[in-house]
Amino acid sequence: MAEGQPKTLVAVIFYNERGRLRDTLSRFPSARDYDVLVVDDGSTDESAGDAGASGFRVIRHETNRGVGAAIRTAAHVALAEDYARFVVTAGSGKLAPEELPAVLDPLRRGVCDYTQGTRFLDGDRTANLPRHRKWMIKALNVLVFVLTGRWHTDITCGYRAYATALLRDPRVNLEQSWLDGYEMEYYLHYKALTGPYRILEVPVSVVYPADEPEYSKIRPIVDWIAIVRPWFLLRLGLRR
Predict the structure, then answer these.
(1) In the chain, what are the domains?
(2) pTM over 0.85
(3) Which of 132, 99, 126, 94 lies closest to 209 in space, CA to CA?
């Protein structure tokens, strides 16, 4: 990283990803202008060993605490070590490390404070997405528009990059236990929407494994409730 250049931390979050994590981490270039942190959310399969063998810095939760808790762990590092930008991506292989420069570039150029990946902005850049998942994504986009008046094409995409100023905002409290699950990403999105932050959607690809077209860590009903409830709780002032 060039001397004096604002630092970027890329957090790869995973839980029980078997060979997918190994493949994902191998796709990060050896010459890069950002740091990679791998957060293992209590894996019980061989992916924990894959993370350790990757050569990247690894933080491991002893038990599975939830994606929000893993993001919080990585955010603590970003803040404690004075990073200017914080990226969240997944170790499942569905999000391409090769597309990271496109996600980061608007922040580096000062165009925005937060980039949200989207597979639908310039057409359908997804593969093997189950039809019911696509309709649920569209329904959530509509719900967010009704509650906030802001339209997004793919509110659920997990490729996100933040200026750490958002994490330092006194209105933002990452330590709340109700954010341990999928709520965290949508909590941060709501805070960005309702604060002085510029949000930009960036086209990315999301590829589901052809041999497991239904593959997803999102559980029906339970996790969709976790995705939806921050919008209502925050909009109604029931959480802060």
Answers:
(1) 8-235 (3.90.550.10)
(2) yes
(3) 94
